[in-house]
Amino acid sequence: MKRKHKRLTFVVIALLLLAGAAALVLTAFEENIVFFHSPTDVVTKHPGPDRRLRLGGLVEEGSVEKEAGSAMVRFRITDLANSVPVVYQGILPDLFREGQGVVAEGRLRDGVFQADGVLAKHDENYMPPEVADALKQSGKWDEMSETMKRQGHVTKDGAK
User: Fold this and answer.
1) Beta-carbon-side half-sphere exposure of residue 143 (alpha carbons within 13 Å)
2) What's the predicted TM-score (pTM) here?
3) Is the pLDDT assigned to residue 90 strictly greater than 50?
4) Which own/partner pairs from 40-47 qualify as long-range (CB within 8 Å, at least 24 positions apart)?
5) Using a CB cutoff of 8 Å and minimum separation of 24, what contacts does 6-11 make?
6) N or C: which end of the chain has fewer CB within 10 A?
7) CA–CA distance from 149 to each of 73, 98, 134, 139 (Å)?
8) pLDDT digits (tens, 9 = 90+) for 133-151
9) Cα Rg for the chain, rounded, in angstroms?
10) How do 65-66 and 72-78 pair as beta strands?
């Protein structure tokens, strides 16, 4: 075999191995990617039960129910157009309350979002831009910002 053929064979094998490694890495990333959705996205797109996602919006007023003697909490997340029921087993963050921004991570099963993690925050850094925009258009965003200022929390614009 000529030297050029050996070199070409080596290059082809190296490229095939590199392509295989890239395919494995992309497959691993695809399984671990968690997409961010608003309640309207969840209602209209119906993600599958095996799909992990983050659901962001406001905790709906009057929807929080805590089971006595248990760490089980039920509530609804809304973007003011649609809402999704959420079930969470665990300790909620300090900022969690009705009317506050929240992000839950988990899976949608039988129309109920089974959360395995909940984050609560007062600004748009923890919710999809569509939800923050809907809140701003409805006037709820200003109410939320004013409440946080009164409570002494820092808003995105740096006000106390």
Assistant:
1) 10
2) 0.62
3) yes
4) 40/79, 40/81, 40/82, 40/130, 41/128, 41/130, 42/82, 42/84, 42/108, 42/113, 43/82, 43/84, 47/108
5) none
6) N
7) 28, 17, 21, 16
8) 666 665 655 555 555 455 4
9) 23
10) antiparallel
Q: Give the tokens for residue 2.
A: 């000529």
Distances (CA, A) of 132 to 35, 37, 70, 92, 100: 17, 12, 32, 22, 12
**Residue 75, pLDDT above cutoff 90:** yes
Place of tokens 């494995």: 24
Q: Which homologous superfamily does the CATH classification assign to the domain defined by 34-150?
A: Nucleic acid-binding proteins (2.40.50.140)
Which tokens belong to 152?
Answer: 């002494």
Q: How far from the centroid of its chain's Cα atoms is residue 133's Cα?
A: 16
- Lowest average pLDDT, out of 26-40, 78-92, 128-142, goes to 128-142
Q: Supply the DSSP string of 28-72, one letter for each residue.
A: HHHHH--EEE-HHHHHHH---TT-EEEEEEEEPTT--EE-TTSSE
Q: Which residues contact 11 (CB under 8 A, 6 or more apart)?
A: none
Q: Where are the domains of the chain?
A: 1-33, 34-150
Give the type of residue at 6. Answer: K
